[in-house]
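Before surveying the methods themselves, it helps to consider a single example record, giving the amino acid sequence and backbone structure tokens:
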Amino acid sequence: MSDPFSSRTLGALIESLAGGSVEVVDLTQPLSETTPIIMLPPPFANTPGWKQHEISHYDDAGPAWYWSWFEGGEHVGTHFDAPIHWITGKDRDDVSTLPLKQVIGPAVVIDKSAECAENPDYLLTIDDFRVWESEHGRLPEGGWLLYRTGWDARAQDQQAFLNADETGPHTPGIAIDCARWLAEESPIVGIGAETVGTDAGQACAFEPAFPLHTFIPGANKYGVPQLANLSKLPPTGAVFMAFPLKIEGGSGSPVRAVALVPHG
């Protein structure tokens, strides 16, 4: 028997969406052959970008239909990092086995866009969270941390997005001890970022290298990089969701990430 309260709750959500008191905010970057991709240093292999191949377009190959096939890496564009993506999570969930209730949760937005504009290597710290919690309350159980850096403004330009020089890429990230704390002590289940990956551009030289990737998958938690429009979300009160394709054994997948934002 269905729960009448649950039915009313879902009905109220549909009415709120239709009436505009709840807005659906698209957090996804466009996916195309110009979408920026991460560039790992030698000797590591890099992902291919995204490509689409036309099958027919209302022509002799298919007079009444248009369709294409595509190829690309699992971790291109706005995408999902499953725990199995990293060696610390090799025995954890892939995108086909993760509990779907985990990809929907309360969103908390920490805005460090001003700091990142001054210092592209800015690292989020535990103290930053303490200050945020003093203003907005504790991080929610099962929540998603969405780290706003302003980097989505660069997302259509590979060079500006990676911001690399002779010392490597320079993009914001999360401090080593903070990455461990988020994985092992905080109640969040996932981290969203506007940058090409969830770790800082210089994280290859950290100890351990790529600390967020090291600690988060080991805790069976998730990442969603290359988000857009975090500026449209409040610090608290929104709901985040990002559904990966159900690729058997997949370490990741492009996603359509959205947030539900209440108004009024």
The first strand starts at residue 22 and ends at 26.
